[in-house]
Amino acid sequence: MARIFSQHKIRRTANLPDTWDFSAAGKTLKMHVPGCWETIPEFSNYRGKALYETEFFGKGYMRIVFNGVSHTAKISLDGEMMAEHYGAYSAFDFVSEKLEAGMHQLVADVDNSFHKDSALHIPGNDYYSYGGITRPVELEFIENGIYISAFRMTPVYTDKGWRGRSVVSIKNLEDKKRDITLSLEIAGKKTLMPVEIDAKEEQAVFFEESYENAETYTLSDPKLYFAELVLYENGEAIDDLIDRVGFRTVEIKGDKIYFAGEELKLKGFNRHEDYAEYGCAIPLSVMARDIAIIKEANANCIRTSHYPNDDRFIDLCDENGILVWEEAHARALLEENMRHPKFMEQSLLSIREMIGQHFNHPCIFTWGMLNECASDTEFGRECYKVLIAEIKKLDPSRPSTFATFKYGVHGNDICLDLPDIVSYNIFPGWYLKVPTGEHIAGLKKFIDTTPGAGKPIIISEIGAGGIYGFRSDVKPKWSEDRQAELVAEQIEGVLKDHDFVGVLIWQFADCRVDEDIFASRPKTQNNKGIVDTYRRKKLAFTAVRDIFGKY
Length: 551
Ligand code: ADA
Description:
By secondary structure, the chain is of the alpha+beta class. It is 18% helix and 36% strand. It has helices at residues 284-296, 311-320, 335-338, 343-358, 378-394, 436-448, 480-495, 539-550, and strands at 12-14, 19-24, 27-32, 49-66, 69-70, 72-77, 80-86, 92-95, 99-111, 132-133, 137-142, 146-158, 161-172, 178-186, 189-197, 202-211, 225-233, 236-245, 250-253, 256-259, 262-263, 266-270, 301-303, 323-327, 364-369, 400-404, 421-425, 457-461, 502-505, 511-512, 525-526. Strands 1, 2, 3, 4, 6, 7, 8, 9 and 11 form a 9-stranded antiparallel sheet that branches. Strands 22-23-24-25-26-27-28-29 form an 8-stranded parallel beta barrel, surrounded by 4 helices. The longest helix has 17 residues, at 378-394. It is globular. The chain binds alpha-D-galactopyranuronic acid. Alpha-D-galactopyranuronic acid binds at residues 126, 331, 371-372, 405, 425, 461, 506, 526, 528.
């Protein structure tokens, strides 16, 4: 399943096989789906094209959803091209023409090479662009030629209680106009709407409803509600979609952030989707364990650095009251990378898919983008402007942010007027030989000279490297002991300073990196995790847990 709850009671779904025929580099084998091909030893370093093929029983209109293919995909059905998609970290789908009852062939042409049209997946990065069909694939029967294609609800707080502002998209695949009734039930309140949809049209239906029984979603009591949408035609239920929503506000007042009315003090981690043998296709059990470790560390926030995450992980964060900064894909692009002819189109797509697909998760408190890109140049600024405007257009209900490191020796950021929240990545004591208190005091002074003055400030990355199992009383670089000492000094320094909304440690778990560039990455990993790639706890874990527990 692509979510941790069932999304349909009426729309029929079917499973695709767990292994597909796979061919790459002149070899053929069976490959698990979802999964990364790097988990198979002979493909552990393979970068290039691969063909995945499978068959399914189909009949009528079939909707096929790929929740994540890393990173360039062309999908065909019975030999006909149906979808092309770029970007590993969001879903795409298509609906077939009416199929004859019988077996049908589904082929995915997957490419993880850093080809000329790839502006965001680039070589030499500090994480790994894996290959494969890395997230679940869903198969649905659209038996009545009409279906609910999207649903978004914005919670709105009024003095009379909660309201929900909804938009539902419905797609008519047939050649005839349809008269249907849309029903939406949330928190025991049902709304019925008659809708007319022209032949072959997709129509958005907007409405607002009050939910008197809805209780507020808070971090200590993360109350979730199913939103059950059903389409009726001539009194018969013909399609449905189930999602989950929560009722809470996210507000900025001065330099503070309030979530469900409560002032936030962020204590959290940056997390890559990466696990020792699974690559980025980590199973639900590992996600659940990550959540347990995050909670054990007394943390309350995760940043999905540097791309949108698997829906199931965000579902788990929703259930556990863990705040999420979700981020569109991009890391450390220089101005020359941002001048790539595909950069803007691919960045806009990443933002649109992220917000479109994850809008309803109440745990997401901010949308981020463009981690450490060229926010210090005029050209870069134009790009930041367009992309932040897109985020605000798609979701005015949440603040926006981007993580920058442009300050001091790194040059000065010229985009701090654009986001709602100012976020800085800093590594005092690791890359910069300066104590944390001194560094952040200077940073705050600098921000105060910019249009970022007065906005909330998050330390979005801070940390130090430590290799699991390397311990030494003299605390040399890369020892767990040095890492624990440094991280403790860093986070305590930020948390006790009321000028900052909080701190997100770089990073939760060690992750694989591209080996081309990072000579400074022993084990071809970014070793700044407080747990290693198997989630074994380093000394830093205990230090962090104790300090996070105090604030
Ligand atoms: C940056 C970057 C991260 C990671 C980190 C580090 O701040 O955003 O992706 O590379 O530095 O470990 O140096």
